[in-house]
Specification:
Helices cover 1% and strands 37% of the residues. The protein is built from one helix and 24 strands.
Length: 413
């Protein structure tokens, strides 16, 4: 087994000095305002950031694994946690690494060790570029973009890379506009911190200095796997320079806007020769569900930390089993739940076999759509997908939608 250490460069979330490395390795210093007033609404931004992107080659027969950063090792990886200003930091050689790989007839398990690239600061000393407490991130996820052909669901008109992973937290299209040409195919992701397992809410926080072991399951194959792996996260600017040791985290606003986890479970098998519907129970975890919207969004920096910028509830849950019907089945109202880790929203969707699909096992799909409207103005620095290919250049992309997908097994007969 071969594994390459990944190199990161940390990027802050505040208007401060930008310290970087040029392509020749010479330091570059750009002065920025160090004391931006947090009461300025423009100082509060949130979105989805990318810690890193890596090309992976995996031989399922020999279990050889090789991972190569897609950004320049000279300049370093970026930990993008701000939509406006940032500085680069020294490379972190062990922010994520492969610790184990096991394969059998059921699939291949990849054991990753993920660690936050910065240690928490010490309040006994003044704030600085390294002495800070404002770089916690949320909903950290490992996202996979496979070289395999995605599965097309014609009634829902959606492509999903459904033949690659197993036991995924869900599928997302959030990376669509970062690809050239853009691809709206939904790709699988695995949460690094999953509060639904413990039932206790931390907003899926991945704090400074934290580390986590995470196992990703990939389906078996007789051919080489080639795929791109991303680390994505929800983030927000939580302090100015002088408040770095006393940050204000706006949760759930700093979390992902779409549902962070979705499961779908048919309650029985479908009959082959009957329209009798089968109930599919869909569990949805969504931090923003029912959250109070701040009354004055233009002055959001003065909002209570638990209030959100604009509404972000679950709007609709849609289910499709290809071949059963020429339309989708949906529900707009949960039968129970709040969306929190110990009490997910439960939707009951009745699905009938109207086309008399024959006996067999089929792949079903569920889509959970959010009420939040994607931001289209890149200058607003809110609700965007943000990355830096070289630790200096800032790329901002529009989120194509706020939706989470999941697949499930449907059995007829």
């Amino acid at each position: 087994m071969k594994s390459k250490n990944l190199h990161y460069i940390v990027i802050t979330i505040l208007m401060c000095a930008i310290i970087g490395c040029s392509s020749m390795g010479n330091p570059v210093i750009i002065d920025q305002a160090l004391t931006t007033d947090i009461s300025d609404s423009n100082a509060i931004q949130s979105g989805t950031g990318i810690l890193g992107a890596y090309f992976v080659a995996l031989n399922p027969q020999t279990l050889d694994f090789e991972m190569t950063p897609l950004r320049s090792a000279t300049i370093g990886e970026s930990m993008m946690v701000d939509g406006i200003t940032f500085f680069t930091w020294f490379p972190c050689s062990a922010c994520i690494r492969l610790e184990g790989i096991q394969g059998d007839s059921n699939g291949i398990n990849l054991d990753f060790y993920v660690s936050h690239p910065m240690q928490p600061g010490n309040t006994a000393y003044p704030p600085s570029g390294s002495n800070r407490l404002d770089l916690d991130v949320f909903d950290l996820a490992i996202v996979f973009w496979s070289s395999q052909t995605p599965t097309y669901f014609p009634v829902m008109n959606q492509e999903i890379y459904a033949d690659f992973c197993q036991n995924q937290t869900g599928y997302t299209t959030e990376l669509a506009n970062l690809h050239n040409p853009p691809s709206n195919a939904a790709v699988p992701y695995f949460l690094v911190v999953d509060d639904s397992i413990s039932g206790t809410s931390t907003f899926n926080k991945f704090a400074m200095g934290q580390y986590k072991h995470t196992t990703v399951s990939i389906k078996s194959s007789s051919t080489m796997f080639y795929f791109t792996m991303y680390l994505t996260m929800g983030y927000g600017a939580s302090a100015t320079f002088w408040q770095r040791l006393t940050p204000k985290y706006y949760n759930p606003e700093f979390n992902r806007k779409a549902a962070w986890k979705v499961t779908a479970t048919p309650q029985e098998h479908w009959p082959q020769d009957s329209f009798a519907p089968v109930e599919v129970l869909v569990e949805v975890y969504d931090w923003q569900q029912g959250a109070t919207v701040y009354s004055n969004p233009s002055d959001y920096s003065n909002a209570p930390s638990d209030q959100i910028y604009s509404q972000s509830d679950v709007y609709n849950v849609t289910v499709d089993v290809p071949g059963m019907a020429n339309w989708t089945f949906s529900s707009n109202t949960p039968v129970s739940g709040t969306g929190m880790p110990g009490d997910p929203l439960i939707y009951s969707v009745l699905v009938g076999n109207y086309n008399y699909l024959t006996n067999g096992t089929y792949l079903g799909i569920v889509k959970v759509v959010d009420t939040r409207v994607p931001e289209t103005n890149l200058n607003n620095n809110r609700d965007l997908i943000v990355t830096s290919p070289d630790g200096r250049t800032l790329n901002k992309g529009v989120m194509p939608e706020y939706a989470t997908y999941q697949t499930f097994t449907a059995i007829v007969g």
